[in-house]
Write a structure and sequence with these properties.
The protein has helices spanning 2-36, 43-64, 80-115, 128-157, 161-168, 173-193. Helix 1 runs antiparallel to helix 2 and helix 2 runs parallel beside helix 4 (128-157). The chain is globular and about 60 Å long. The protein has 194 residues and is an all-alpha fold. The longest helix is centred in the middle third of the chain and has 36 residues, at 80-115.
């Protein structure tokens, strides 16, 4: 599973970098408009592409890190086996939804390719380029989810319920605190070494 985490982290960094670049581009465009009555032209279009692509490529890391938001008011009161069944249903529903989005998104990419579609902005971007990068992010998310679910089911078959919970369940408050303490110790040790 280390390779899966590494792959999703690369997607997360890629997505984050795109969103950061979009924010910088929009900031520059705002400054140009305010003080120089000029514009980059297409900054909003590029920011839209960056947001869609960045989100798609970051979804896998959120799934692996169990960072997706869940409402767990009642969930924490259920027995572990019921929680795990609900977790499997939740992951299946998530994968089913994004599988459909990816399936229909691929049709959009295909149509853009066949028709040679371009954006209606001054950039006249061939829409197939950002759409293809976006759809690859969604497909990678679905693949990551299937691998994660398969691993969770393998753990369930071996009755390793705690391992399964650490893989797909909502993070407990104790896990959140442990992670924060570990991160704090890592930051402190890196500050001491510099």
């Amino acid at each position: 599973m280390t390779w899966l985490r590494r792959f999703t982290q690369i997607g997360l960094w890629f997505g984050g970098a795109l969103v950061l670049l979009a924010a910088v581009l929009i900031g520059i465009d705002v400054i140009l408009r305010k003080f120089f009555a000029a514009s980059i032209g297409g900054a909003d279009e590029l920011a839209g592409y960056a947001l869609a692509i960045g989100t798609a490529w970051s979804l896998g890391a959120a799934l692996v890190d169990r960072a997706h938001i869940r409402i767990d008011s009642l969930y924490v009161r259920f027995p572990m086996r019921l929680r795990l069944v609900l977790d499997i249903v939740g992951v299946l529903a998530l994968l089913g939804f994004f599988g459909l989005v990816a399936w229909h998104g691929w049709g959009v990419v295909e149509q853009s390719w066949v028709s040679g579609s371009r954006s209606q902005s001054a950039l006249e971007t061939p829409t197939v380029i950002p759409q293809l990068i976006w759809i690859l992010g969604l497909i990678s998310f679905v693949i990551v989810g299937v691998v994660l679910l398969g691993h969770a089911l393998a753990l369930a078959a071996r009755s390793e319920l705690n391992g399964m919970a650490r893989l797909i369940s909502t993070r407990s408050a104790e896990e959140e605190v442990e992670d924060e303490i570990r991160d704090l110790k890592q930051r402190q040790s890196s500050e001491r070494s510099t």
